[in-house]
Amino acid sequence: MLNSKIPAGPLEEKWSDYKGHVRLVNPSNKRKIEIIMVGTGLAGASAAASLGELGYQVKAFCFQDSPRRAHSIAAQGGINAAKNYQNDGDSVFRLFYDTVKGGDYRSRESNVHRLAEVSANIIDQCVAQGVPFAREYGGLLSNRSFGGTQVQRTFYAAGQTGQQLLIGAYQALERQVTLGNVKMYNRHEMQELVIIDGKARGIITRNLVTGELERFFGHAVVLCTGGYGNVFYLSTNAMGCNVTAAWKAHKKGAYFANPCFTQIHPTCIPVSGDYQSKLTLMSESLRNDGRIWVPKEKNDNRKPKDIPEADRDYYLERRYPAFGNLVPRDVASRAAKERCDAGYGVGTSKQAVYLDYADAIERYGRIECSKKGIENPTAEQINAHGRDVVKEKYGNLFDMYEKITGENPYEVPMRIYPAVHYTMGGLWVDYELMTTIQGLYCLGEANFSDHGANRLGASALMQGLADGYFVIPYTIGSYLADDIRTKAIPTDHPAFAEAEKSVADRLQQLKNIKGNQPVESFHKRLGKIMWDKCGMARNEQGLQEAILEIQALKKEFWSDLKIPGDIKEMNPELDKACRVADFIELGELMCIDALNRRESCGGHFREEMQTEEGEAKRDDANFSFVSAWEYEGENKWELHKEELVFDVAKPSQRSYK
Amino acid sequence: MSITGLSLIAFLVVHVGVNACIWARDGGDMFNKASHFLGTTVVIRILEVGLFAGIILHVVQGLVLEVQNRSRRNVAYAVKLGNRGSKWYSRSMGLLGTLLLLFLIMHLSHFWVPSRFTELQTVNIDGKDIPNQYADIVNIFHNPIVDVLYILGCLSLLYHLLHGFQSAFRTLGLGNSRYMSLIKIIGFWFSIIVSLAFIMMPISVYFGWVSE
Amino acid sequence: MDHYIMNLTLKVWRQKNNQSKGNFETYEVQGISSEMSFLEMMDVLNDRLIREGKDPIAFDHDCREGICGMCSMYINGRPHGPWHANTVCQLHMRAYHEGDVIVVEPWRAKAFPVVKDLIVDRSAFDRIIQAGGYISVNTGNAVDANSIPIEKDHADASFAAAACIGCGACVAACKNSSAMLFVSAKVSHLALLPQGAPERKSRVLNMIAQMDKEGFGSCTNTQACESVCPKEISMANIARLNSEFIGAGLSADK
pTM score, two decimals? Predict the structure, then answer.
């Protein structure tokens, strides 16, 4: 029943073969076709720009005050590409293979291979747009390594790669605005999808400044609305990140795939108190040079500096000698949790491990001293030079750490702990990135397709831009070629009126609750349920409890919520309430999905399913499929399975030892 | 602003150079010769027209800029950034400029108007009768109130230059770090030396450090 | 870092919408932890206001890690508060002590009209970028990324300028409400790269024209912008912008 439309033929020829045969829309027809783009992060901005360049009439929407603020901007470490500039054995195949393996064999081979194929073009495109990637003295691009790989294929711009890439895409988008191909709607949030004759034909938005509902038509609708990590309340996502657009589409018929696959990032600044509103990531690139450890003794309250080497447990290096501190994120996160749960955690909360740069500073210091011809350097000289190198590489991250914690990471090891970071799950899409609703596409983190059960570092930027620059411009034509005779549907069509009314009713319903608790308190409680029972480790009993707790929370939400202000005005609390209402429903589905998947894979760790060494135990015989959930009404979903076929990357026990 | 500003700075170099002649301890001969030369040379007279045009342009531009820039913020801040972000004199160029303009009017009425339109006493140097500008200066600077006003005027000039000198170069696009630090140093000492030299004039006359 | 609890007095600018006249409201906030961020302190206050049936304070914020450029508060006379090279969202309460009075205002500039309370409309920045802050290269046109080597110093300087987050603190701090630091950062970012060369002249002329049209003031080099910029964008960029502008103006055909 689920048709993923994977082209026939050998894996490495599928994409070029597809491109060679896909139906096209001629330029004069493109001018008559309107496309709605929801979200302007890397995927949305790049897609809006590229489709505008092709001549389509694009309407782009973002809830922020400018498209440049989308949360792609916060990505720090870098973007992968199979350029093999380092001559270290990289290739399209190896990037493909690393990604499938890193995703614990739960992603679609054909999509991942396409991703690896276009990765190199992304770097070319970005450089042409003026993205100032880091360079070597010879003027050529510099690379570094990231978790889960043994080659250096990550391109970066200090610790601000996402920002630079997003600004590149934003500039391309604004250029199309100037040229009249894209119309930009800032501070607009999608509230409903409009479906006419089974096809996605428009959206209803709420203007966040005036509170007015507005109707927009499009021959096709593209969602690039990012991930739903904020279902956990505390995550590294921006405060505004939400699932609402995807969830509305889901309730209108788009299947939601693998919702339980969430990525817990191992290196975040630990929680400091109940008031905490968000968590801050410390880039994975820090694991290039930093060493992670805990004391060998439980409750060792000595200062980290006073703990001698012999009393330190570099547990990643101990358990995974081949990859050491650069194991994939899911593995590193679980290992940290294991140590903390066993009582070896550090800091006041005991929910943290050390990320130590002392060795790196010394190592770089010695290299610098020898470069500068200093013979027999003193410890101070080594330290000073080493710090300078580390500062150049990671200075902005170290500064950020110091601002938040008040501790100097050049002197004291950083305390880190895993935190929710990315969601591999999302709307189910076929090879063309179309959801199960005709004419509704989903790109970037919002879809499920490329990362399986675990995403490798520096791959999110790659996927967002691949989808936006190089995939959707081809695949959307295949659908729109049939639509060239469809005239723009006026927005007074009954379907628009009906959709708008449903939104207005819901807003009114939220406003009418007039209870006692602010939205934030519900969101916090939802987050706690999710983190405790559907977080880094899950088990049957906990998930069953969580489902009941979430259902109870939902009831309470709809009976005791308090929203100040009015609907027809700027009202951030109302915006938040709309988002949290959807998060609550999503939370339930995530738990159902996690309960259903009785195996451990990638970021999904079922405590019942682990090896004797505590590693995730996959069950390929029974769970080598994508769970695509169809919404059937309140608290009811039907599971559809897309069987995963691995012709090339044969599943094996994932080992980083 | 920057081009007129820099041309006025160039004029100051000439002005301060001629003024330094009063310390020659020759009863004002060198100074009188120099000012006579300036007052009678055609090229200089043409430049004088340019100078006045430059001053007027600088004043008009400055006033327009100040008015425009003030209109760019409708509601004032309750708490101001003040000296945490910039030097007081950098923010007060309009005020300093206005003070300088008032000073300039007084200054011109003291020296320029008499030398051009009303007759000065003459003095015989090397067989020629030339206007005794020097005596005029000595006469005027014997008045302590005038001296104080001059000192205040020159202090305004000092701070106006401290910002204006380097700002002019920035506006003209000279901003890479190597030149900029050089310009900052030159600008600083130029402002100090020129203003101090001017300030020393009334003081020297008042306290009789120059020959009568 | 020693942790402590404090009580504070907040004076916050409240303004219902663009049409209405605003005024300061005073709030006493109790039990604030020194480990909170400034925005978390605002969250605590808003939670209380909602429970008391009052309208919470609207303020822009999103990433809360100092990179999206959305947060914008003028705290005790300084954009983004007292810390150097910082955004409000990264300002932590250990910057304050028991009994402190904190005055919070929105960015104030004619080109940034207040939308509500502390939220202002910065779409003028988008329109300046639309005027030319890009390189005209369609998707798919690019040559191999390493085919044009770029001198590391230029690439680094370009990156340093591109680090601008478009928050508008420069405008807020400037006595002239000038946007020169923002414009100069974008012009420098692209002018320092060979890819930006073909549109170098038209870019600077068009962006400056748009900047003037939006109602930003002129630069008088007071350096206030540089002192408050969360990303430490250098004034050298303004000089570079001026030289680009003069060069382009002199050599332009029209």
Answer: 0.96
Query: For chain C, which residues make up each domain, given as ranges?
Result: 5-105, 123-251
User: Using one digit for the tens of pLDDT, what is the confidence trace for A42-95?
Assistant: 999 999 999 999 999 999 999 999 999 999 999 988 999 999 999 999 999 999
Per the domain annotation, does B25 fall within a domain? yes
* C-alpha closest to that of A170 among B172, C162, B76: C162
What percentage of chain C reaches a pLDDT higher than 70?
Answer: 99
* Residue B212 belongs to some domain of the structure: no
* Rounded Cα gap, residues C233 and C240, in angstroms: 13
- Tell me the pLDDT tens digit for each residue of B79-91: 999 999 999 999 9
Q: How confident is the model at residue C102 (pLDDT cuts 50, 70, 90)?
A: very high
Report the alpha-carbon distance of residue C77 to residue A98 in Å, rounded.
52
Pick the CATH number of C5-105 from 3.40.190.10, 3.10.20.30, 3.40.50.150, 3.90.600.10: 3.10.20.30
Backbone angles phi, psi at B52, to 5 degrees: -65, -40
> How many angstroms separate the CA of residue C146 from the nearest CA in chain A?
6
With a cut of 90, say whether residue B175 has pLDDT above it.
Answer: no
How is chain A split among helix, strand and coil, in percent rounded to 5? 45, 15, 40
What was the pLDDT predicted at B125? 83
H/E element holding B194? helix B177-206
Write the pLDDT tens digit of every residue in A502-546: 999 999 999 999 999 999 999 999 999 999 999 999 999 999 999
Give A389-401 as a DSSP string: HHHHHHHHHHHHH
**Between residues 573 and 592 of chain A, which touch chain C (CB distance below 8 Å)?**
573
| Residues near A303 by beta carbon (within 8 Å), at least 6 away in sequence | A412
CA dist., res. A323 & res. A325, Å (int): 6
User: CA-CA distances (angstroms) from residue B75 to A399, B70, B180, C182, C223?
Assistant: 35, 11, 35, 22, 22
CATH number, residue B43: 1.20.1300
Residues of A in contact with C139 (CB under 8 A): 46, 49-50, 53, 125, 172, 469-470, 473
The predicted structure's pLDDT at residue C1: 58
Report the residue of A19, A63, A84, A127 to disrupt the C interface, i.e. the one with the largest count of C CBs within 10 Å.
A127
Q: Which CATH superfamily does the domain covering C123-251 fall into?
A: Alpha-helical ferredoxin (1.10.1060.10)
Give the residue numbers spanning the domain of B122. 2-206
Answer whether residue B114 is part of any domain: yes
C-alpha span between A247 and A256 (Å, rounded): 8
**Reported confidence tier of residue A657, pLDDT bands at 50, 70, 90:** confident
Gap from A237 CA to chain C (nearest CA, Å) = 7
ipTM of the complex model: 0.97
Q: Structural domain tally of chain B?
A: 1
pLDDT(C254) > 70: no
Burial class (CB in 10 A: 0-12, 13-18, 19+), A569: middle
Check residue A57 and give left, alpha or beta (phi > 0: left; psi -120 to 50: alpha): beta
How much is the pLDDT for B27? 82
Which pair of tokens denotes residue C39? 């925005």
* Chain A positions in Cβ-Cβ contact with residue C64 (cut-off 8 Å): 238-239, 277-278, 280
- Which CATH number is correct for A265-420, 1.10.287.130, 3.90.700.10, 3.40.50.970, 3.30.300.20? 3.90.700.10
Write down the pLDDT at residue A147: 77
Mean pLDDT score, B65-82: 96
Q: Do C175 and B93 touch (CB under 8 A)?
A: no
The 3-state DSSP class for residue A209 equals coil
Report the neighbours of C using a cutoff of 3 or more CB pairs below 8 angstroms. Answer: A, B
Instruction: Give the separation between CA C173 and CA C163, rounded to whole angstroms.
Output: 19
